[in-house]
Amino acid sequence: MPETTPRGLTGLAFGGDYNPEQWPESVWQEDVRLMREAGVTMVSVGIFSWALLEPSPGVYDFAWLDRVLDLLHEGGIRVDLGTPTVAPPAWFYRAHPEALPVTEDGVRYEFGSRAAICHSNADYRAAAADITTRLAERYGDHPALAMWHVHNEYGVPVSACYCDSCAAHFRRWLAATYRTVDAVNDAWGTAFWGQRYAGFDQINPPRRTPTVGNPGQALDYRRFADATMRENFRAERDILHRLSPGVPVTTNFMTALSQCDSVDYWAWGREVDIVTNDHYLITDGRRTHVNLAMAADLTRSVAGGAPWLLLEHSTSGVNWQPRNPAKAPGQMARNSLAHVARGSDGAMFFQWRQSRRGAEKFHSAMLPHGGTETRVWREVVELGAAIDCLATVRSTRTEADVAVLWDWQSWWAQNLQWRPSEDHDPRERADAFYEALYDRHLTVDFAHPEADLSRYPLVVVPALYLMTKAAGVNLERYVDGGGTLVVSYFSGIVDEHDAVHEGAYPGPLRDVLGLTVEEFSPLLQGQSVRLAGPDGRELAADVWSEFVVPGGAETVWTYADGLPAGRPAVTRHRHGRGTAWYVSTRLGADGLDALLERAAEDAGLAPRTDLPRDVEVVRRTGESGSYLFAVNHTASDAKVPLETHGTELLTGERAAGRLAVPAGAVRVVRLDGR
Question: What is each CA distance from 454 to 314, 404, 473, 476, 477, in whole angstroms?
Fold first, then answer.
């Protein structure tokens, strides 16, 4: 069986993407020397090197890569070796132009960027299998090899192709999934608008149509595209497992990036030996550290709670946003160690040496254009020393307090055309609920709607438009067993085929919530509503309202104005041994905090009033002990209470009572007695 941690690493992974092919060989020795100075333990190599490894069809040049891997091994640096199948060479596309993907409008992309791949193309699949086989045969037992890195960021920037090869592949997928074309007609509701098919041969991808196409077809095409990419990953993975036994295989995810919502990472997490993730701060004026925490929690959840690995993030600014500010002094270390706190067994970057040419030459790196006399380099060296101090944290697990339900397939359905309001953004609700939980100092696990939830005192459903009957039964069982559930509006509306559940809204949630929804009443842009509470306190809401009819639920907040004035806005329902809350409008931060305060009380979760805002405290526990991470994202010194004595690993000092965490700093205490 393959390992589930990088082979040969005894501490945390620290390093980044290494692209020696961008530099003359005379630089390579210096690279390794500086890597050792910075405390680098692993680098990713070869991800975009297909054109150099196979400069013409069937002609291979591995000599340069031999020298690179041997040099890294001599320097004591482990290698995450890539299969370069994300970037086929120009000669390949010249011979097989049909391997370039086609858009919904029938436009074929050109060579000259990255990841321009039709994943159904047989020639691409054969060529990818060939280069992967040759790499595995040559390097499968290389002493520097720590793990294999298949492809790169599947789904970015292209996940779906609409060419004739994909059309044929889609028909085969439908036949395997549904068995009969009548089953497809039933699932897609093709009786509407006369769309019925008499045979699989009549079905095409959901290409451009005069107006909105069939939503069931569009949803299944998202599933098909994701499954096709996963087929290609498995093909490469299986070659590597066969020819390089015992070495773990991964591919880098982008779990919390809204631009990468084409991948169902619940399914992908079951296919890799190690879950890895790339995370880049979206610097749009919001609290970027909250999204970072969310990405780390989500990645850990995709890994089933096991340790994972941050395979890419940035030392400072990136290059692809409209505005790309530098990170503040100390922020790189704080970002890195916040990922470690939430389960990563290391901190890797893109990339080692900053490029002089190409599209990403202004993306920051561990070794900047300015070299070793720069602030970034000094901070990299300091971070390498800190990572080394945390070696015993490796393989421990992060402890969570609550669960948030998350389903990529529900988002695919929600984001199709012609929904009640384009202002309702399910990702915005997920972010908002997560931020409210973060501000209550609750560590979050994300969970699939059909997963076992029994260990969580509180489960939050920010947006789950698509809900299977099995998920509805699961949530009812959870509450009946004593759990506390919070559900936000427009959840439980359709089944897995985007068909509205029979009966009143919200379908499978009616009984557990103790209510029905007669009608949605989305608000116009700029409109808002007021909610009146039992203590006279008003809450503000916008975007959405509903006509809620209680069927056992008690009204906690009432619409004070708007079309549903006088009707329930937020309800609470005792069901079995637990409690289910429902919020029928879009609450702001204050409203979410008020709601979660009440729900947390039902769940028996004590408030953490002893912790300042933006000082996060997270615990990792395992055979090596229990570790408390305190990350101070503020400009003021903070104090964090300790339940027992311990040793602060970054300074070596003993800690007891209240732990001092300087402004912008991180402290990690190995607690006594575990």
Answer: 37, 13, 13, 11, 9
